[in-house]
Write a structure and sequence with these properties.
heterotrimer, A: mainly alpha, two-stranded antiparallel ribbon, 3% strand, globular, C: mainly alpha, Helix Hairpins, 3 helices, 77% helix, 0% strand, elongated
């Protein structure tokens, strides 16, 4: 029981409300002064302050959690009952355990850094206060998602982050296509969320309780008869939110939002909610091995295909988005193999280096005045050296080369894939994805920073307020893996820390097997790096030519196939359905409505003849009625 | 003897009634109504209600009918409804209605059956009923009469005269249908 | 007097029916009101027939109420006829047909 826990959600929420109020004031001022702007320092201080305070709070709670004995590291907070209807009883209670603690730290830590970065990135934007209101609201929703002690609360956060994602993708809605991209993200997520909701319903029906403790206990003792269905349905939600095949189409388009948003929401935190959900319900998924295999295969396939997509992309942010999809696939692959701790580990390191990459990319784009096309970059190394170094650190960590963070967490996943069942398929997918990751990471580095200068104008380094968060994240990428996941014999801190929460057995660390995995993964990543160096270091985009003839490349370029399918079949089907509904509405519904009206006026027109104003006509009616009454009286009364 | 008188008076009343509805001029019709009312007064007497018979004479034949005659003469109607009456499609239903009512009356009367006993009521009886059991309705009737007086006063008052339709320049040449059916 | 009650009722019904027929056929409002009086009298005759058949005075007392009513009706009705005549210069009932739907 802790009063600090609700505060952790409440702080960003308060920040969001404050920023929204400031934005409302700007809007009302704008009626008289179209150039009115928010006080950027005030807004930035409020929002970043709220995020930082939340981080400090999360850190304090984390320390308090560490002080507890390993078996009962749980801090709860109950805010009364949220829903009490019949058998459905949902308490509004939060739960901080090792899993949610790590997530809370990542969310608030990366979130606070990105808030800081955004002050520089969004300078001068008319929607400055609106941006920070959304960003703070996102933090609050994400923390609710992570800290909720039952599925409905998590679902509230889940939808809250979806809403913020929609708002922020379409932040520059005036341009048109960002609004469409936001809508696409929202609609695609609905598909997954439908599965999530059905899964919640099913669990409520089968179990009568929706808090994670009951679900975990029931699942590990096999008391959920339809665990397979429940797990499959909940996985649908994860697939939507974490942009896995076949619902991955929304994430590349989500890059329409401001780059810090891409970094925070569409790389570091929100899209990992699916990974978190699976880890949170690991007992349930372990009770459904078939679904777990599907999770692994879907994750692996997504990792490989999205990796190819990242390789074929000519847009910097789009390539990073595909890379995010790919890395999320890798996390699912690890979880599918039963290595939930590896998935969470990779989630954490990925949050660091992918946020770093996005922020660095944002810095590049900022320097080039909004240019995202890889063909118009190159040779930027000397112009923006600090950004270059940060980007390199991120790419290095992403590619999984030692000794940076990505190496260790990816190692965990690959080790888990080899260790679990179905090792052959999962591990081969994992290694393929690893290779691709190294290849496209360094392709980006070389295309942006080396070779001929193709850009226009004179790029300038970003301000300190943007560079500082990048430096912090770069340090985390450099050291994070080494600090937390360095395999010292069997004592792997993260796995041990998470063990009480996660079901299943963690893959044993160390030993010959681990060394083999590390060596293989290092070799694969090195080959990718070397190939990338050979292809793109000097030739720029021309390096694509050799690959462009391969079948794989065509497959990657055809990554839009699914998009085309959705557009062609699903969207057109929906439109046909809408047209059919329209026709039905026009002719059947409107026909009925107008028919009623027309029948009424026709009846009126025909009855109008009766109302002829002649007293004698009315008299006939009276006489006829009187006669009828007389007759009736005779027949009924006397008869 | 009384029976013969009844039937004779009944036939006279019906003759008068027929003329009320069949004569062209309202004045003639009103006079025939007077005939009917006198005959009916005799019948009331025969039926044993002398009070009603005399009230009928006083109120109906005396007051009401005189009022009618007064109004008819006041209005001095020259143009009346078209004559002879256009009875196409009306005569059949009217005759059927009259005969139907007759049949119904006879059918109802079968319950009261037979010849009526020799019955004669007194004014005392009527007074007791009127001022005893039916005092309240009687007072209500008085109120109704008062209301009627007030209503007539309101109706007869020459208020702000409505602007006469332009086609009615002079009295006696109205074409009301033109206004009634725009 | 030994007239059958049915004959008294028949006389009342005949007067009433003639009144109805006049009401329906005539357009002169004055004659229409005369027809109404016929109907009233038909009702009174019927009431008296009932009084004799049951040997009570109540029905004939009701007949008194009918006469009250007729007096009110005639006074108000004739006032209306005069008002209409003032307005339309006619007592034709079709002259008052402006409520036609």
């Amino acid at each position: 029981m802790s009063a600090l826990l609700p505060l952790l959600v409440g702080l960003p929420l308060a920040g969001a409300i404050a920023c929204a109020a400031l934005h409302a004031r700007v809007l009302s001022r704008r009626r008289t002064d179209p150039e009115a702007r928010p006080g950027e320092i005030l807004v930035g201080a409020i929002a970043t302050g709220a995020a930082s305070a939340a981080f400090v709070l999360a850190l304090a709670l984390f320390v308090r959690l560490l002080g507890l004995p390993a078996a009962d590291r749980r801090i709860g907070a109950s805010l009364g009952t949220w829903i009490d209807a019949g058998t459905l009883r949902v308490p509004a209670s939060l739960l901080l355990d090792p899993l949610s603690s790590i997530l809370a730290l990542v969310v608030t830590g990366v979130g606070a850094l990105i808030h800081l970065y955004s002050i520089g990135y969004m300078r001068g934007d008319p929607g400055f206060a609106r941006y920070f209101a959304c960003l703070n609201l996102f933090l609050a929703s994400m923390l609710l998602l992570v800290l909720g002690a039952n599925l409905p609360l998590t679902f509230v956060g889940w939808e809250g982050v979806g809403l913020c994602s929609y708002l922020l993708i379409g932040f520059w809605y005036g341009k048109g296509w960002p609004a469409d991209a936001g809508l696409k993200a929202f609609v695609v997520n609905r598909v997954g969320d439908a599965g999530f909701l059905l899964g919640i319903f099913l669990l409520q029906k089968e179990l009568g309780a929706l808090d994670y403790a009951s679900i975990g206990a029931a699942a590990s003792t096999g008391k959920i008869p339809s665990a397979t269905w429940a797990a499959a349905l909940l996985f649908c939600g994860a697939v939507g939110k974490s942009a896995q095949i076949p619902l991955q189409v929304w994430l590349p388009d989500a890059m329409a939002g401001p780059t810090p948003v891409s970094a925070l929401i569409h790389a570091a935190t929100m899209v990992t909610a699916g990974v978190y959900l699976l880890a949170r319900l690991s007992a349930l998924f372990l009770a459904a091995p078939g679904v777990l295999l599907v999770v692994g295969i879907v994750g692996g396939a997504t990792a490989v295909l999205a990796g190819l997509g990242a390789l074929a992309s000519r847009d910097l942010k789009r390539a990073l988005a595909c890379s995010t999809v790919s890395q999320l696939g890798l996390m699912f692959l690890g979880e599918g193999a039963g290595a939930f701790d590896a998935g969470i580990a990779h989630l954490t390191t990925h949050a660091f280096f992918k946020a770093l990459l996005f922020l660095a990319a944002g810095s590049v784009i900022h320097a080039l005045g909004g240019e995202q096309d890889l063909a118009k970059m190159g040779g930027l190394r000397a112009r923006i050296p600090a950004t270059f170094l940060c980007f390199c650190a991120g790419a290095w960590a992403l590619s999984g080369l030692p000794p940076l963070a990505g190496f260790f967490s990816k190692d965990e996943i690959l080790g888990g894939a080899l260790h679990g069942g179905h090792a052959a398929i999962l591990a081969s997918l994992g290694f393929a994805a690893s290779f691709l990751t190294a290849l496209y990471s360094f392709r980006l580095v070389y295309l942006v920073f080396s070779g001929r200068e193709n850009f226009a104008g004179s790029p300038h380094e970003s301000p300190g307020v943007m560079l500082a968060p990048m430096r912090v994240l770069a340090a985390l990428s450099l050291l994070g893996g080494a600090l937390a996941w360095i395999p010292i014999a069997d004592a792997r801190p993260i796995a041990a820390f998470l063990a009480p929460v996660l079901g299943g057995e963690a893959a044993p660390g160390g030993g010959a097997e681990h060394v083999l995995v590390a060596a293989l993964s290092f070799a694969v990543a090195s080959v990718g790096f070397l190939l990338a160096r050979r292809l793109w270091r000097d030739r720029g985009l021309a390096g694509d030519e050799g690959l462009a003839r391969t079948a794989l490349w065509r497959l990657a370029a055809a990554g839009g196939v699914l998009d085309a399918f959705y557009r062609g079949a699903v969207a057109r089907g929906a439109r046909l359905l809408a047209i059919a509904c329209g026709v039905f509405d026009l002719f059947v519904i409107d026909g009925a409505v107008n028919g009623v009206g027309r029948a009424a006026s026709a009846a009126g027109a025909s009855l109008r003849a009766l109302q002829n104003g002649k007293i004698q006509s009315y008299g006939i009616g009276i006489a006829a009625a009187a006669g009828a009454l007389l007759l009736a009286g005779l027949l009924l009364g006397r008869g | 003897m009384a029976e013969a008188l009844f039937y004779a008076l009944a036939l006279t009343a019906l003759y008068g009634a027929g003329n009320v509805i069949a004569r062209r001029h309202a004045l003639v019709a009103a006079v025939h109504l007077a005939l009917t009312l006198f005959a009916l007064s005799g019948i009331y007497l025969l039926l044993g209600s002398p009070l009603l018979a005399f009230l009928n004479l006083l109120v109906y034949a005396g007051a009401i009918l005189v009022l009618f005659l007064f109004v008819i003469m006041l209005l001095d109607l020259r143009r009346d409804e078209p004559w002879p009456l256009d009875l196409r499609g009306k005569l059949g239903p009217a005759a059927a209605f009259v005969l139907g009512v007759e049949a119904l009356a006879l059918a109802f009367a079968s319950g009261d059956g037979g010849e009526g006993p020799a019955y004669r009521e007194t004014t005392d009886q009527s007074g007791e009923i009127l001022f005893g059991q039916y005092l309240f309705p009687f007072e209500i009737s008085g109120l109704l009469l008062l209301l009627g007086i007030v209503a007539v006063l309101v109706l007869a008052r020459r208020g702000p005269r409505p602007a006469p339709p332009s086609s009615e320049g002079t009295a006696g040449v109205p074409e009301p249908m033109a206004q009634a059916h725009p | 007097m030994t007239v059958p009650t049915a004959h008294v009722y028949a006389l009342g019904a005949a007067l009433f029916a003639l009144g109805v027929a006049g009401f329906l056929v005539r357009r002169n409002l004055l004659v229409v009101f005369l027809s109404l009086e016929l109907m009233f009298n038909g009702a009174i005759v019927t009431l008296l027939g009932a009084a004799r058949a049951r040997a009570t005075a109540e029905p004939s007392t009701f007949a008194l109420f009918v006469i009250f009513l007729a007096a009110v009706e005639v006074s108000v009705g004739l006032a209306l006829v005069i008002a209409l005549f003032r307005l339309r210069r006619s007592v034709d009932s079709d002259a008052a047909a402006s409520l036609r739907g």
